[in-house]
């Protein structure tokens, strides 16, 4: 039976993972309302809604598509029971380098990619080897969704990144690998959601629990989110989260045994460059209560390579 979670399981010593962005930062204000919510149903013949009622816009004929590069649209050859119809059952397939150009306002964004690795347009699923860049960041390099999903026993993958955008256009490029013949790139869905800057401090540093040193997260740092946890609460669907993503409930998902934390997360990395990579642990946890009530942001870092 396929695992329907996004991330695998690992055990991490507690002293390594606890990096606090804010030591339980409390804000008595309305919930954050994203200024941008772009949901692209890649390859879809028309607009559609997912199981949570969110509206996805087809990218067919979209102003976001670049005029250069060769791509096609395709239906997924098969559908596993756990795979959502929208956005996973259609894909845009790229045979050459292809770029989406998406107008945005400057600031930090959640950028999410949905990959359902099955055959599209008669192509071999294991020939889908590609890189993904967003602006100056290389988020995925020679990535195989099929091999990753097979190794993790996942039916589909959701890759989420936190990126700062300085300009007014977000360029998302899919680049088929040149290391093997007949390779292609594909994507089923793309989300771009603006987010509050929960990582900035007065001097730009974050204190590390149990240490006197600080860690700097600047606007040129990209993070990959590997786990979302509503601490002590229930599952939160994307329709009820201001970041438009799901939070797993705290019950049984995160536990402490022998000074170790077990969380559902795989070893992942992302960043702007491939050199000078620092492997850190990253997960973003949040208490999201009802509108106009207390919102507590807690950040720990578990298994993310940060490039800057």
UniProtKB/TrEMBL annotation:
Q: Which residues form a coiled coil?
A: none
Looking at the keywords, is Ion transport present?
A: no
Q: Which residues cross the membrane?
A: none
Q: Which residues form the Malectin domain?
A: 40-175
Q: Which InterPro entries match?
A: ANXUR1/2-like, Malectin_dom
Q: Which interval of the chain is the signal sequence?
A: 1-29
Which GO MF term does the entry hold, naming one? Answer: transmembrane receptor protein tyrosine kinase activity
Which UniProt key words apply to this protein?
A: Signal
Q: Does the keyword Signal apply?
A: yes
PANTHER family attached here?
OS03G0124300 PROTEIN-RELATED, OS04G0586500 PROTEIN
- Under what name is this protein listed? Receptor-like protein kinase feronia
């Amino acid at each position: 039976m396929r695992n329907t979670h996004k991330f695998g399981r690992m055990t991490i010593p507690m002293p390594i993972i606890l990096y606090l962005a804010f030591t339980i930062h409390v804000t008595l204000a309305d919930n954050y309302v994203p200024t941008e919510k772009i949901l692209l149903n890649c390859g879809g013949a028309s607009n559609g809604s997912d199981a949570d009622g969110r509206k996805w816009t087809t990218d067919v004929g979209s102003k976001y598509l670049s005029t250069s590069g060769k791509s096609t649209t395709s239906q997924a050859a098969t559908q596993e029971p756990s795979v959502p119809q929208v956005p996973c059952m259609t894909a845009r397939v790229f045979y050459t380098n292809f770029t989406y150009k998406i107008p945005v306002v400057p600031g930090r964004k959640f950028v999410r990619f949905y990959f359902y690795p099955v055959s599209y347009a008669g192509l071999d699923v294991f020939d889908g080897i590609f890189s993904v860049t967003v602006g100056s960041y290389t988020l995925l390099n020679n990535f195989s969704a099929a091999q990753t999903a097979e190794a993790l026993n996942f039916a589909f993958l959701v890759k989420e990144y936190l990126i700062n955008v300085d300009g007014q256009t977000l360029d998302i490029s899919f680049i088929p690998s040149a290391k093997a013949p007949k390779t292609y790139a594909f994507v089923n869905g793309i989300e771009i959601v603006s987010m509050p800057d929960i990582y900035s401090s007065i001097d730009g540093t974050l204190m590390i629990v149990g240490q006197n040193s600080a860690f700097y997260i600047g606007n040129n740092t990209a993070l990959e989110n590997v786990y979302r946890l509503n601490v002590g609460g229930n599952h939160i669907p994307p329709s009820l989260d201001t970041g438009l993503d799901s939070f797993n409930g705290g019950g049984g998902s995160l536990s402490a045994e022998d000074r170790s934390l077990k969380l559902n997360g795989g070893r992942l990395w992302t960043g702007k460059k491939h050199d000078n990579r620092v492997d850190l642990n990253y997960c973003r946890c949040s208490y999201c209560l009802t509108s106009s009530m207390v919102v507590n942001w807690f950040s720990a870092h578990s298994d993310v390579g940060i490039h800057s």
